[in-house]
UniProtKB/TrEMBL annotation:
Gene3D superfamilies found in the cross-reference section: YVTN repeat-like/Quinoprotein amine dehydrogenase
Natural source organism: Limosilactobacillus reuteri MM4-1A
Protein family: Belongs to the cycloisomerase 2 family.
Alphabetized InterPro entries for the sequence: Cycloisomerase_2 (IPR050282), Haem_d1_sf (IPR011048), Lactonase_7-beta_prop (IPR019405), WD40/YVTN_repeat-like_dom_sf (IPR015943)
Protein name: 6-phosphogluconolactonase
GO molecular function: 6-phosphogluconolactonase activity
Pfam family for this entry, one: Lactonase
PANTHER family: 6-PHOSPHOGLUCONOLACTONASE (PTHR30344:SF1), 6-PHOSPHOGLUCONOLACTONASE-RELATED (PTHR30344)
Organism phylogeny: Bacteria, Bacillati, Bacillota, Bacilli, Lactobacillales
Amino acid sequence: MIEQFLIGTYTKKASKGIYKVTLDTAQEKITNVELAIPSQKPAYLQVGQDDRIYAIKQVDDKGGVASYSLSDDNAKMLSDVLAAGAPPAYVGVDNKRHLLFSANYHTAKIDVFKINEDGTLTQTDSVLHEGATGPEPEQEAPHVHYADLTPDNRLVVCDLGMDLVVVYDVSDDGKLTAVSRYKCEDGFGTRHIAFHPNGNYAYLLGELSSKLEVLKYNSNDASFKHLQTLKTIPEDWTAHNGAAAIRISNDGKFVYTSNRGENTIAVFEVQPDFTVKHIQSISTEGDFPRDFNLNQDENYLLASNQNSDNLTLYKRNPSTGKLTLLQKDVSCPEPVCVMKWK
């Protein structure tokens, strides 16, 4: 079977935009890496409906978001919304309400856009995070790093600078109203969150602390209750590490995180009480794995190493959750985002 991923990249060196990657499951290897959408700094992207792609974009000293139509070899930009300053760090899409969300690390803003029928984007709201920040040098200001949907269709936002998770109600016309705040331990560095398929638990990743928190989610008031905290790296690890990406298997049995520094994918087994147990750490065979993703049937995992310009493919055992290396040194320039495409 042939499947394809889209790879978002930085464009500081050789990269020219968003790349498409072919996975041949019969051969169990990546067979092709080629440019799909020319763009500057499309560091995060989402695959929407009707062959639409939504991505971060930078043009000279302006940053923002863009929408594209992509089918096979044909890519067309539909719209972009840019403003002076650095581009966002993350984009999330709401296909039901036809909304796009961006999280800007540098400005600490969450911006909301209406996705019009023709794929163009119209901004509907902007929320600025302000307030007390954490003790680490990287926490000199609020830093919004993630904005995406909860299982009950609210918007959950991770703020690395404030060690904070904020949940917003989202109106059909794209307006945000804050409904809850969850404060992590000081210096946690809240980066990304993944919800269990049952919608009642969440797994929160701290970049600065290299820690994983297990939370109970109450959909009645959008609140979180802390259940567990554990490291994503060995307790005796003293060199720099920044936790980056988190994914959970569709069956809710395994949580995966990436470590930039130790350069590993850490595997956690979900226990009957929804806490987790670390069961494996496997090398990404490269440097600075900013993202990774599972394929369609979740029998494979593809990781992206930003600094060493390579992708790494693993076979995944769905029963044990563990990974086995299949292929390394797949050349791809500055890869930082991995999304299933088709």
